[in-house]
Amino acid sequence: MKEKIIYECSECGYLSPKWMGKCPNCGEWNTLSEKKEIKGQKKAALRDKPVLSRLAQIENREDARICTGISEFDRVLGGGMVRDSVTILTSPPGGGKSTLALMAACETAKQGFRVLYASGEESETQIKSRADRILGIIEENIWILADTSMDAVLAAIEEIQADLIILDSIQTFALAEYYPARAGNPTQTMECASALVQCAKNKKTPRAVLMIGQMNKNDEIAGLRALEHLVDTVLVMEGEGADELRGLTATKNRFGSTGEMGFFSMTEKGLVSIDNPSLYFITKRSREQAVSGSALTVLREGSRAVVAEVESLVSRSFSPYPSRISESMKRETLHTLLSILEQRGGIQLHDKDVVVKTTGGLRLKEQAANLAVLMSILSSAKEKPLPPDWAFIADVGLTGELKKVPGLESRIRELDRMGYSCVVTAQNVAPSVEYAHIRVAECRTLSEVIRLIFPGKR
């Protein structure tokens, strides 16, 4: 068979008949490397006759999922890992993905499942050191393989008949068949992932696979985008190394809902599930302890309603251009809300510095929090505290009118469960449901809310 020399980009996989300094597809420099292409190679014929099944006759298995026992991890996955599935987990460096994978391995092994933990980044002693620190008792059903050979991983899977395979990380492994392409090359990464998909979806011995993926500077999984299409579930862990809070989100899930959020706290003993985030993201105060600049709202994180505290600080500015700082929302959104508060609420802020944040670092991604943001700013500007057992759930339009938000009933139900006394929302949108403790105060405009909280004031 005739051999032909071609050149492949190590960043995007682009193929070129000649060498070039700059890849015409992705624009990266010095990424084209020589590769041999064999011409005249015939496609392999099908070894066996394909086995067809009628969709109506396929039965769902009750034991299809493996619950890891880590409540927030299982929640995001939709109830646990499916046996014949491939999941990829990514996060910034130091985000805790290896820690979470090792904890999942331990909790799964406790149930009698065989777990193979293959690492191409750490040695056996490094993994053992972390396990001693975060696991305490190490289960006998966990096997460690410190190697970068995917061939060795596949052989180890068959040797121990693993039920769960964890790879840390997929970009560090290579198949001998595709030498001289190095580990991390798009071709190697895709072929290694394809081999794991075939291994996981074996009809006789279905297995669950959890791959850890490296994250690039654009906060995306390193390598070709096709890797995300290949796997069943994509999990993204948010949070830097110095942050205590970690958020886990499913951006793709063939066996559950996307957008589901799980919360963890990073401690010396590893990640701890935050099972009641409504308590984690607020500061509990009595009426005597109430402080100005604090307002409560309810956010939707996946299918769960979470009570969040918005804090604001309004102070005199000593510069011609007052500062507007927000760690939890877009700066443009903050500028818009301040304009609404000035024009529709009658509060002068043109000479004031305004800082907005949330307790616990929760992101304000929903417009349902806009009324709470405005009320926290107003409270700080007037130096008068809001009732600590009140919450605010509404969007605020440019006209100053309160707008309805989706999922209002579940948000109010969470406040009622937590024992709050009143929630302020838009007019004619509150569900006709009886609540045990909470009162629903409906207002039409921002001015009505201000008069309700501060009687006699605009």
TrEMBL record:
Residues 62-215 form the RecA family profile domain. Gene3D superfamilies: 3.30.230.10, P-loop containing nucleotide triphosphate hydrolases (3.40.50.300). It comes from the Bacteria. Keywords: ATP-binding, DNA damage, DNA repair, DNA-binding, Hydrolase, Metal-binding, Nucleotide-binding, Stress response, Zinc, Zinc-finger. PROSITE patterns: RECA_2 (PS50162). Belongs to the RecA family. RadA subfamily. DNA-dependent ATPase involved in processing of recombination intermediates, plays a role in repairing DNA breaks. Stimulates the branch migration of RecA-mediated strand transfer reactions, allowing the 3' invading strand to extend heteroduplex DNA faster. Binds ssDNA in the presence of ADP but not other nucleotides, has ATPase activity that is stimulated by ssDNA and various branched DNA structures, but inhibited by SSB. Does not have RecA's homology-searching function. This is DNA repair protein RadA. The gene is radA.
